[in-house]
Design a protein that fits this description.
alpha+beta; 5 helices; 38% helix; 12% strand; globular
Length: 144
C-alpha cells in the first residue's frame, strides 16, 4: 500500500456569504480573503476542491460616494437602477452611450438580474470590486 504524503496548500476563496471569517494580510493593498487549507496527494491531485480569487479591499469613501450616486440616479426611487437610469448615469458621468448589451454585461458581472435592475449593493460592487467608473468623480459630475 502506497503511503500518501499530504502537503497543505493555502489559498483564498471569495464568497457572498458575509458570515464566513475574512483573513486580511499586512500587504500594502490590505488584501482579504477566506483562508482554507487544501490537501494534495502524491500525484498533486487536490483532495479538497478550492478556488483562489482575492477579495479586493474597499475604500469606505468610495462606498459612500457610490451609494450617493445610486440615490441620485434612482429617479423612480424603487431601489433599482433600470437600463434607462444606468444609461443616464453613463451619459452624465462619462458621456458614454450605454447600450443594452453593455448593461446586461454589467448586471451579469455584479450578480444582478437585468430585468430587475442594479440594486444599491450592485452599484457599490460595480465601483469597488469591478472598478467600473470613479464613484467620487461621478458624484461630483452629478452635483454640477
Amino acid at each position: 500500500q502506497q503511503q500518501q504524503n499530504h502537503q497543505p496548500l493555502s489559498t483564498t476563496i471569495v464568497s457572498d456569504d458575509h458570515d464566513l471569517p475574512l483573513v486580511c494580510d499586512d500587504s500594502p493593498d490590505d488584501s482579504c480573503g477566506i483562508e482554507v487549507e487544501v490537501v494534495m496527494d502524491d500525484d498533486n491531485d487536490v483532495l479538497l476542491p478550492s478556488m483562489s480569487i482575492p477579495i479586493p479591499s474597499v475604500d469606505p469613501l468610495i462606498q459612500v460616494a457610490a451609494t450617493q450616486v445610486f440615490e441620485m440616479v434612482d429617479q423612480n426611487h424603487d431601489g433599482y437602477l433600470h437600463y434607462e437610469e444606468t444609461q443616464l448615469l453613463a451619459k452624465l458621468s462619462e458621456d458614454y452611450d450605454l447600450d443594452r448589451e453593455a448593461y446586461h454585461s454589467i448586471c451579469t458581472m455584479v450578480g444582478a438580474e437585468s430585468d430587475k435592475g442594479l440594486s444599491q449593493e450592485h452599484v457599490v460592487k460595480m465601483y469597488t470590486h469591478l472598478r467600473i467608473g470613479d464613484a467620487t468623480a461621478d458624484l461630483q459630475k452629478l452635483h454640477s
